[in-house]
Amino acid sequence: MEESARGRIATRLPSPADPAAVLGGGLKRLFIRLPLHIVLIGLAIIWSIPTIALLVSSFRTPQDIASNGWWNAFRLPLNFTTANYENVLQQHGMGRAFINSLIISVPATLLVILIAALAAYAFSWMRFPGRNALFLVMVGMLVVPLQMTLIPVLRLYVRLTPNVDMPILGGNLFGVSSFAGIWLAHTAYGLPLAVYLLRNFFGSLPKDLIESAYLDGASDLGVFFRIVLPLSVPALGALAIFQFLWVWNDLLVALTLLGDPRLYPMTVNITTLVSSFGSNYQVLTAAAFVSMVVPLIIFFALQRYFVQGLLAGAVKG
Amino acid sequence: MIGRRWWAPWLWLAPAITLLSVFLIYPVVDTLRRSLLNADSTRFVGFDNYKFIIDNPVPLLSNTHSAILNNVLWLVLFTSFAVGVGLGIALLASRVRYEAVAKSAIFIPMAVSFVAASVIWRFMYVFDPHIGTINAFITHFGGHSTAWIQNTNAPQTWLTSLGPTTLPDPIQINNLALIIVGVWVWTGFAVVVLSAGLRAISSEMLQAARVDGANEWQIFRRIIIPVLSPTIAVVATTLVIQALKLFDLVWVMTGGKFKTDVIATLFFREAFLIQDFGVGSALAIVLLLAVVPVMVVSIRRFQFQEETR
Amino acid sequence: MASVTFDHVTKRFDETPAITDLDLEIADREFLVLVGPSGCGKSTALRMLAGLETVTRGKIYIGDRLVNDVPAKDRDLAMVFQSYALYPHMSVYDNMAFGLKLRKVKKEEIRRRVTEAARTLDIEELLKRKPRQLSGGQRQRVAVGRAIVREPRAFLFDEPLSNLDAKLRVQTRAELSKLHERIGTTFIYVTHDQTEAMTMADRIAVLRDGIIQQVGRPQELYEHPDNIFVAGFIGSPAMNFFDATVRGEPESLQLDTGPFHLPIPREKAAGLLPYRGKKVVLGVRPESIHDSDFPRSGVIPVQVQAAVDVLELMGNEVFLHLLSDGVSFLARVDSRTKAKPGRKIQVLFDLGEMHAFDADTQQAIPLDKPF
């Protein structure tokens, strides 16, 4: 913004009566800045090539993929196909895995937001002994590497798993290979960061608003649902996007807690495809792209929230 | 608040406290306990598991030294590349009108999973130069095709041609190839944060410097870098934590084979494939000990920023 | 509608006292203004009444009901905040209706009350807007409207005019007075601005460091301040104070301020008699110091010479900052004055309007018979 404003001023500086000077100035400026443009555009292209290669290849026939590089795809006659997608969705379980990813990610996102918001409200607007210490302990949990928790959680789950199938969704009702089990785990892992972010946001809301609502007759629940949550939509949105993508893209937790292939989300499914179809790229490229569709849609549709969410959440891991 | 029962806050906190206790606090305590027990957690063995990590008795099956050194290599190279390239791109992008588009292109990899990124790059790294983009590029300019994922040799550089024929252990081609994938994913993060930091440097400050006779290099060296250094530190600590906890990328790209293991992948194999919960837990504790100081620093700074905001 | 009683109320934050032994009865339908400098505890008092702060010691009653342990939402009070505290995500209508909805008032009844309040405040055309689309003055009206529709037992105002510009503040003062007359509910109003207190209040309570200094009608506080603090706080520009010693014979007492000696008028002398030879503080309001070229009738003039330091033209009058042997004071004189900065001038002290205070206790020395 500022740069373009400065640029306009710079080109306006020569006398307007001398259009040649203006034109010459602009050209000269472009020439001086040419290396800048080349380097920057070059880097942007280099960064995009791997993704483009994947996308293009996923629409090529198995014979084409195996015989020559993706950059030949645009030679005439064009020979694109959607067969790879039909193949991975139907035969390699990516269709079911897509649904599973949704079934895992959406509740895990909503749960973490609800539970973290409740806790953050207490930390922001209630006084109780040990408040600051407890908050620090909760946020301090960010240091725990997820890997560390997996053995104990898995053991616990093995002990708690009932031999009851979950109707409709499949898998167990709770514990190992259950959606409920992985929802709770992801919710817990997301809490330290979510509590931290929401507490900071809630704490920045004007105190007068909250007190005014109390005087208007609102209870804590009323203030929470009618005042605090509606005013926190930007923070909740950023947090939701981060948590959703985190769960959607997670491999480790799902790999550990879901033993049943019917429950695999896409990340786990692709990982098994990689080990069994290591160089079968008509399968892998299409599968990988299927897993990328939702994140990319979120990226392009909600870019601002998306960036905020990832920036806020980057410390998690 | 008048009329609020003393237990009301605890009711609001109860779900969070319960979940954190079960999924984070209990596991940490339990892991600590198991790290002092034998493989199936039936007998107390003292620090034998930690001794195992230090002594590295079965380097072919689970090479603890290589895993730790690889983490160190990641920590240094991944962090410095991502910060360096990110800073360069942020500076360049701040000077053009298509800043947003350029940054988007760099940032997109952040959206996809490490699993998808791994597939993307396995495809880029394919050995057959007719298919693998990187090898096609190299052979096009007269080079030789390389097995990027399997090659454990040190890269041929001016360093190796100088004298010492081997570089230190973890510097091997496949590790570098993996680090490139990590940099590809995380540079976008560095760019976005650093751009925000750059925008905070007022154009008046830069104009004042130009009026004072500073050239572009001096402006970069004397103004931009010092003002930006807290932001750079934020980016660097985040990336260091990512480097330490690294798992998905290595697991999908190589499964830890070809001496590419890092602590987290080795842990996973020990715990879930070899089923040695003792060594696995000890590795997890090592990881925790490595992460804690970095995390403490970054939370401290977070808080400091909150307070000074 | 209800009376409000603070019965020996004390409030401490940790160990710091914010309010000490506040004892105050506010009658039903009264307009009481709590005034004092910032940090004097006036907002804390209001917030205790509202139920936003606990009471450390003492009792607060609304009507006959002891409310110490009653939650804010059940006290049936409405408060207008300094920031107005309008809910930014709700329309003006919803802001005003919020409290009624929470109290499960019927929809038609809400509509009736909101429209009526909006008509009263002339904000009918704003009902659909969001707070951020309103000007400062409009927001203030909405905040008042939100309080009115609740039909509470008492209205609490916490510096509601301090975010308005000067002109709007004057206008709103008048409107608030009118509003009080019309709806006839108890108003408790906190401000640091003595002008607001003087212009609107039935009674004023002056607070300093958490302690009540004086409670009374505005005119009472102006004419008979109980101590130096109230004397200096009420009235603008503030009263001039001179350190003085009482000298002379009982029938011809004088005040010796150093630079000048003032003979004490006979009708004021009785009160000062016990202070013969002692130090007192003389208080003279700027409006009781006149230019000797334009004397007023009905005053007890004492002539004093002083140098003009600064001269402020106010249009209808002139403020003279005067110096007399290192003692500075302010006079509020006729605009036709010929005073010029740096020049000497004769001024007349109207000692009929003088105040005197005990130098040690700071308390007023009664000079007139109290009414």
Let me know the largest β-sheet of chain C.
6 strands, mixed
Secondary structure tally, helices of chain C: 9
How helix-rich are the residues of chain B, as a percent range? Answer: 55-70%
Number of strands of chain C: 20
Q: Identify the overall geometry of chain C.
A: elongated
Q: Provide the low-confidence segments of chain C as ranges.
A: none
State the domain count of chain C.
2
Q: Please, how many domains of chain B? A: 1
Strand content of chain B: under 5%
Would you identify the regions of chain B where 5 or more consecutive residues have pLDDT less than 50?
Answer: none
Instruction: Determine the CATH superfamily of the largest domain in chain C.
Output: P-loop containing nucleotide triphosphate hydrolases
Helix content of chain C: 25-40%
What's the multimeric state? Answer: heterotrimer
Radius of gyration of chain B (CA) equals 24 Å
The level 1 CATH classification of the largest domain in chain C is Alpha Beta
State the distance separating the first and last CA atoms of chain B: 27 Å
Element-by-element helix/strand order of chain C: EEEHEEEHHHEHEHEEHHEEEHEEEEEEE
Largest interface: A-B, 104 and 97 residues
Count of individual beta strands of chain B = 0
Strand ordering within the main sheet of chain C: 6-7-8-3-9-10
